Automatic annotation (TrEMBL):
Pathway where this protein functions: One-carbon metabolism; tetrahydrofolate interconversion
Catalytic activity: (6S)-5-methyl-5,6,7,8-tetrahydrofolate + NAD(+) = (6R)-5,10-methylene-5,6,7,8-tetrahydrofolate + NADH + H(+)
GO molecular function: FAD binding; methylenetetrahydrofolate reductase (NADH) activity; methylenetetrahydrofolate reductase [NAD(P)H] activity
CDD domains in the record: MTHFR
Pfam families (UniProt xref): MTHFR (PF02219)
Protein name (Swiss-Prot/TrEMBL): Methylenetetrahydrofolate reductase
Annotated signal peptide: none
Organism of derivation: Thermotoga maritima (strain ATCC 43589 / DSM 3109 / JCM 10099 / NBRC 100826 / MSB8)
GO cellular component: cytosol
Cofactor(s) listed in the protein's UniProt record: FAD
Length: 281
């Protein structure tokens, strides 16, 4: 993944960890998806505040099977001690590429009474990983053996406040940024010009109107009218138009952006293969 990102031809595929102990479908899908030519699986960390298998466990299994991984690491369900302990554990298990996130509000998930933990903000979490690479922790205490973390942060390209925050993340030491789903190539080019770092643009194509409606309600995601209006002609037409839109976006931005992040609702391996083919051409 690091090498592909460096040359600007990186494609990663997001996967959700299992909701139980049965790993069969997860391992089978990732085995087949790896053959599409992606550079890494990006493994989520309890999105929407819902309980799923710990991302470090699933990530370790993927690393052990010869696949590269970009693991989500969220701060809001861990206190300061647990954060540093988990980072050391991840490194020991071979998980060294991290997407550092604040995390979804757990009160919206399976256990509404669960509280968020705010021992550390996202900028200090970034600084912590970089200090650990140098052999110390955030308090300046020596750790025995340096880490080799390669870390990214999130970016909402439609928010001036978030762009300012992204610049602070770059100053804190992130190696790359991942946008929310993008469809507009001009926005992508503008962001790349403004931010002096590697950028992966999230992309998503829809199977049905329900999926599209959900994503259209998420702040920071602007879906083109051609996709929104295509719902009037049924789900099959929507699938076709949204995939066409994504392929056009990839074609127009592959020489500007450093790669693409395919979100987890995408399961069609042939379509994933087509994205990889265009992105790396």
């Amino acid at each position: 993944m690091r090498k592909s990102l460096e040359i600007g031809k990186c494609v990663v595929l997001e996967v959700l960890t299992p909701r139980g102990t049965n790993l069969g479908r997860f391992m089978e899908f990732t085995e087949e998806a790896w053959k599409t030519g992606i550079d890494a699986f990006t493994v989520t960390d309890m999105p929407m505040g819902r309980v799923r298998m710990a991302p470090w466990a699933a990530s370790h299994l993927l690393v052990e099977s010869g696949k590269d991984v970009l693991m989500h690491f969220t701060r809001n369900t861990r206190n300061m001690i647990r954060i540093q302990s988990d980072l050391l554990g991840c490194h020991a298990l071979g998980v060294k590429n991290l997407l550092l996130l604040s995390g979804d509000n757990p009160s919206h998930g399976d256990y509404p009474e669960t509280t968020s933990v705010n021992d550390i903000d996202i900028l200090d979490l970034i600084r912590l990983t970089k200090l650990m690479n140098e052999g110390t922790d955030l308090a300046g205490n020596k750790i025995y053996g340096k880490t080799d973390f390669f870390v990214g942060g999130a970016l909402n390209p439609f928010s001036d406040k978030d762009i300012k925050r992204a610049k602070q993340k770059i100053e804190a030491g992130v190696d790359f940024l991942v946008t929310q789903p993008l469809f507009n190539s001009e926005v992508a080019k503008k962001i790349k010009e403004e931010l002096n770092t590697k950028i992966l643009a999230s992309i998503v194509f829809f199977e049905n109107a329900k999926q599209m409606s959900y994503f259209s309600s998420v702040p920071g995601i602007e879906i083109p009218d051609e996709i929104v209006n295509s719902t009037e002609k049924g789900d099959d037409y929507l699938k076709e138009k949204s995939f066409e839109s994504v392929l056009r976006f990839v074609e127009e931005t592959k020489g500007v952006l450093d790669g693409f992040y395919i979100v987890a609702i995408v399961k069609d391996l042939e379509k994933i293969r087509k994205v990889v083919e265009i992105a790396k051409s």
